[in-house]
Specification:
The chain has about 130 residues and is mainly beta. The protein contains one helix and eleven strands.
Length: about 130
């Protein structure tokens, strides 16, 4: 059974950085590499939104508000997904979730992160709070 566990959230001042991690279990190293993965976030009173996605070819996609500040990556040897977040601002405050696709070998679509329904497995979330 696949499990995703996020870590790395916390409280940071505006302009600071954080790196989120999402460790996946239940995949072999080979199968993990084939799945599109994504980071979503949900701020209080707002809908969950996709932030960044990465596919089997390491193609990536981001929402406009984080382009140039956030970087999504995968470390296949550790079955771990990362989100490096730089130049954080208070609008980035949210619970951050990692998610794994339903099917292998699906590509990231340029300009799109995807919808919640595109992803089958979810972590429990890690809180990111950015103070002004």
């Amino acid at each position: 059974q696949v499990q995703l566990v996020e870590s790395g959230g916390g409280l940071v001042q505006a302009g600071g950085s954080l790196r989120l991690s999402c460790e996946a279990s239940g995949y072999t190293r080979y199968t993990y590499s084939r799945y599109r993965m994504a980071w979503f976030r949900q701020a209080p009173g707002k809908e969950r939104e996709g932030v960044a996605a990465i596919d089997f070819a390491d193609s990536t996609s981001y929402i406009d508000s984080v382009k140039g500040r956030f970087t999504i990556s995968k470390q296949y040897a550790k079955n771990t997904l990362y989100l490096q977040m730089n130049s954080l601002n208070p609008e980035d405050t949210a619970m951050y979730y990692c998610a794994a696709d339903w099917l292998p070998d699906r590509k990231v679509v340029a300009g799109r992160v995807g919808q919640e329904s595109d992803f089958r497995y979810w972590g429990q979330g890690t809180q990111v709070t950015v103070s002004s």
